[in-house]
Amino acid sequence: MKEKSYIVIGGGTGTFSVLSGLKKYTDNIGAVVSMADSGGSAKKERDEWGLLPSSDIRKSLLALADVSASDSLILRKLFQYRFAKGVGVSGMTFGNLFLVALANIVKSQTKAIEMASELLRIRGRVLPVSLDHVDLVAEYMDSSKVIGEHNIDEPEHNGRIRIKKLYTNPKAKIDPHTREAINGADIIVIGPGGFYTTVIANLVVDGVVEAISQSAAKKVFIMNLMTEYGQTFGFTARDFVLEIGKYLDLRNLDYILVNRTPIPEKILKRYIQSKASPVVNDLSGSWPFKVVSLDLLSSTVVKKEKGDTLRRSLVRHDPEAIARFCLKNLTK
């Protein structure tokens, strides 16, 4: 029987969790990642070097990297290493700098990703959703507008105001290789991740929603564990679903996974400053997809790296729980 092929659409730490779980069971995985990042080292890559941001690429490469041999493990650690001091490099990772240098040497970011994939012996492929240089633009309910992924993710305005519309400027087109991979997938996993800045950011690229709709794959959307100030403040599971339905026909989805494990009180206290709260599952009633409530919370508590200046989530999805669901329910 032919091995099922997976496409995981998103970026950042959410996609990292999904890929980390799936790679233990298959190498027929394609990670489709957003290329609109504009914070941290991405700003330097875009503004100073004229390149597309590579942070989400790096994270997906690391998630799929082989760690069975000592040389592979040290390479993975090198790609993860973040500089905590040094003018111009503090906050950046070795992996991002490596990808920048490699892209300049071979004169192609696409080729650099392929070569880094070989070097790390990844189990699968990492696919930029688009190779167009764009900015994310968010229009809010109060008619205000914010340009740039980082400015949407860490807003200077009132982060309680909801986003009315997200798009790219200029318009971005799906990369042909990515379209082909989505069309040919057996299973498509969307999310989790920064809801607008990594999940919806992929869906607003021209051709992505069409490719998902045309694919005969089984499709699942993984709900975030926590809300996020500036993106999803006060959202319930129903709000997430109705919002994604503005960009993707909900009839395309077969499953939506929602966490049922309570977030520990000591973790919730750490979230007070960031104005985040657990996503409440209020998806009762009739939907065109099946709602599945699972224990999706990882027991690992995330510690902030030295030199990291960006806001990060403190909790993660359990890679094994996601992989088990996919293998049990989506591969038949």
UniProtKB/TrEMBL annotation:
This is Putative gluconeogenesis factor. It comes from Candidatus Gottesmanbacteria bacterium GW2011_GWA2_42_18. GO terms for molecular function: LPPG:FO 2-phospho-L-lactate transferase activity. GO terms for cellular component: cytoplasm. NCBIfam families: CofD_related. It is found in: Cytoplasm. Belongs to the gluconeogenesis factor family. Keywords: Cytoplasm. CDD domains: YvcK_like (cd07187). It comes from the Bacteria. Pfam families: CofD. Its main location: cytoplasm. InterPro entries: CofD, CofD-like_dom_sf, Gluconeogen_factor.
